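can u do me a favor
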């Protein structure tokens, strides 16, 4: 019974990350087009650093004094930085409804890391359902009517690189959350990325211009930053209660949320086959969530 409640909590947090990431990525696309990649990233991570500090400041010294934990946190931070830049650039160049599905490739990357480093092995039915989710989401990224002449949306190649890096990041965030806690791992990553982005923007002498632009749209910047931070915290909590691969597979359907917002608000168009891919992936996520709770 206790194990069932643990799985239920994990599924709830994973679905919370799904909704938050979907909304956040849609807002990130709009913010980057006004502020730029690095500027948007700076405000997101700066918000996370400030917002999470009151909850973790008493725990920082005890965790950072352990070298192997510090190594995991640093790796997660570096991976997150590089992945963010590829991700933001892909969102800026391509249609959100088309480039987002490529991030489904995170799932097999996470599965590989989870198997090799922490020995998490999925059951055959779980592997099948994860595969259903991957197929459904990746299917959406193809817009050609004929598979003989597949044409990829703008930004897809950048998003493929981002997907691999995000997969590695997602694993280390989950692993780090288990070693420390979901708030501290996210605070550490946010702090490292805040320092890095601020130095970069200072060298480019864009800091004054960045704040000036942000003050013209404070609500968009604050809401985007808050939602993205909350999404990562929700995901990190999910990894405590359920296998990391399952947490990623369930939350990965945020792609559908982002795409639907793109369709409704930006009036982006998808083919019927691409819409069917969303439904296919959503079906896999729902069945997987039910199976996890009933296992």
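np, heres the sequence
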């Amino acid at each position: 019974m206790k194990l069932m409640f643990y799985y239920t909590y994990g599924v709830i947090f994973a679905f919370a990350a799904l909704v938050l990431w979907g909304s956040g990525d849609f807002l990130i696309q709009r913010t980057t087009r006004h502020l730029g990649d690095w500027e948007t990233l700076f405000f997101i991570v700066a918000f996370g650093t400030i917002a999470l500090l009151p909850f973790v400041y008493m725990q920082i010294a005890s965790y950072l004094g352990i070298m192997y934990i510090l190594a995991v946190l640093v790796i997660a931070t570096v991976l997150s930085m590089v992945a963010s830049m590829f991700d933001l650039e892909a969102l800026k160049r391509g249609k959100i409804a088309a480039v987002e599905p490529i991030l489904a490739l995170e799932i097999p990357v996470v599965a590989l890391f989870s198997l090799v480093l922490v020995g998490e092995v999925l059951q055959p039915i779980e592997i099948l359902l994860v595969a259903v989710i991957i197929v459904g989401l990746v299917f959406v990224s193809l817009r050609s009517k004929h598979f003989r002449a597949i044409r990829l949306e703008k930004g897809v190649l950048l998003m493929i690189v981002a997907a691999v890096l995000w997969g590695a990041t997602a694993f280390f965030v989950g692993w780090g959350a288990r070693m420390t806690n979901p708030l501290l791992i996210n605070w550490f990553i946010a702090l490292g990325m805040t320092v890095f982005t601020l130095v970069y923007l200072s060298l480019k002498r864009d800091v004054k211009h960045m704040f000036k632009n942000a003050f013209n749209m404070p609500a968009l910047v604050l809401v985007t930053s808050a939602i993205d931070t909350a999404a990562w915290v929700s995901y990190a909590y999910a990894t405590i209660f359920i296998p990391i691969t399952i947490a990623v597979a369930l939350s990965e359907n945020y792609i559908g949320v982002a795409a639907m917002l793109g369709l409704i608000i930006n009036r982006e168009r998808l083919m019927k086959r691409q819409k069917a891919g969303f439904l296919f992936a959503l079906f896999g996520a729902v069945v997987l969530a039910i199976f996890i709770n009933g296992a």
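The mean pLDDT is 83. hope that helps!!
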